[in-house]
Specification:
The protein has two domains: 145 residues, no CATH class; 92 residues. By secondary structure, it is mainly α. It has eight helices and four strands; from the N terminus they run βααβαααααβαβ. The model has no long low-confidence stretch (mean pLDDT 89). It has a four-stranded parallel β-sheet with strand order 1-4-3-2, with helices on both faces. It holds the Pfam family DUF7856.
C-alpha cells in the first residue's frame, strides 16, 4: 500500500465499491475523508472491467479539471442565467367564456329594454298609464348598463390573457432558440476542451493496461483503457474506486492513474 493507495481487497470489513463511491461523493460521510470530487469523478470515479464512459464528455471534464476554460464559457454562463423552466402559457378559455356570457346577457337585456321601450311608447300613444312599465324599463336599463360594464371588463381581461399568450409564445420561441444556441455552444466548447487534452489522452493510452494509442476521434477500443486514460489525464484529488483486475499491485494503480485510489 502506498500513501496514495488503499488496498481493500480481501478485507472482510471493507465496504463494497458502490458504498465506497457514495462515501467519496458525500462530504459529510466520515467513512472516507477526502477532497470534494470534481465533475470528472462522475465519469471515471468507479473503474471496473465493465465500465462505460462517454469519451468526449469525460475528456472535456478532464480538461476542466486541469484548469482549461473554453472560449464559449462566458456566453454559456449568460444563457444559463435564463430561466429554462418557463411557466406554461395562460389558458384564455375561461376569459372567452366570460365574454360570451356577458355578451349574451347584454343582448338579452337590450332586447328586453327595446320591448319595454316599445310598450311605454304604445301606452303613451293610447294616453294610458305608463308608470309600471317605465319602472320595469328603468330596472332593465340599469341591469343593461351593469351588463355592458361587465362585458367591457370581460373583453379587457380577455385582451390581457391574449397578450399574455402572445408573450408566452414569443418567450417559448426565444427559449427554443436559446436552447439550440446553448447546445451548439456546449458542443463547440466540448470540442475545444477535448482538443486541448487529445495529445495527453493518446500518451496516456500508451501507459494504461490494455491501451492502444489513438486520438479521441480515432479511438474504438475497449471502454476500460479509455476510462483509465481519462483518469490519468485528469487532475483528480478525490479517490477513485478501482476494481479492475488490471492492477495486481496497489502501487501500480496509483502510478498509472496519477490519482488517489481505493483498490477493491
Amino acid at each position: 500500500m502506498t500513501s496514495r493507495t488503499v488496498d481493500l481487497r480481501g478485507r472482510a470489513e471493507s465496504a463494497g465499491p458502490d458504498s465506497l463511491l457514495a462515501a467519496v461523493r458525500v462530504p459529510s460521510d466520515d467513512c472516507v475523508r477526502c477532497p470534494r470530487p470534481g465533475p470528472v469523478h462522475d465519469h471515471v470515479g468507479h473503474l471496473h472491467d465493465e465500465v462505460a464512459v462517454a469519451l468526449r464528455p469525460a475528456l472535456a471534464a478532464a480538461a476542466r479539471s486541469r484548469g482549461v476554460d473554453a472560449p464559449q464559457d462566458e456566453e454559456l454562463g449568460d444563457l444559463a442565467e435564463r430561466d429554462p423552466n418557463q411557466a406554461p402559457p395562460p389558458d384564455p378559455t375561461a376569459a372567452r367564456r366570460r365574454v360570451a356570457e356577458a355578451t349574451a346577457d347584454v343582448d338579452a337585456l337590450r332586447e328586453r329594454a327595446d320591448r319595454l321601450g316599445g310598450r311605454v311608447e304604445a301606452r303613451r300613444a293610447l294616453d294610458a298609464d305608463t308608470d309600471a312599465v317605465e319602472r320595469q324599463y328603468r330596472t332593465v336599463a340599469r341591469e343593461l348598463a351593469a351588463a355592458e360594464t361587465e362585458r367591457v371588463a370581460a373583453e379587457q381581461a380577455l385582451s390581457r390573457e391574449q397578450a399574455a399568450v402572445s408573450r408566452a409564445r414569443d418567450d417559448r420561441q426565444a427559449s427554443l432558440v436559446a436552447a439550440d444556441r446553448r447546445r451548439n455552444l456546449e458542443r463547440t466548447a466540448r470540442d475545444y476542451l477535448v482538443a486541448t487534452v487529445a495529445d495527453a489522452f493518446e500518451r496516456a493510452l500508451r501507459v494504461v493496461p490494455g491501451g492502444v494509442p489513438a486520438t479521441p476521434d480515432e479511438y474504438d477500443g475497449p471502454p476500460l483503457p479509455a476510462a483509465l486514460a481519462v483518469a490519468r489525464v485528469a487532475r483528480i484529488r478525490a479517490p477513485l474506486v478501482v476494481e479492475a483486475a488490471s492492477f495486481a499491485r496497489p502501487s501500480r494503480a496509483a502510478a498509472c492513474l496519477d490519482a488517489p485510489v481505493l483498490l477493491v
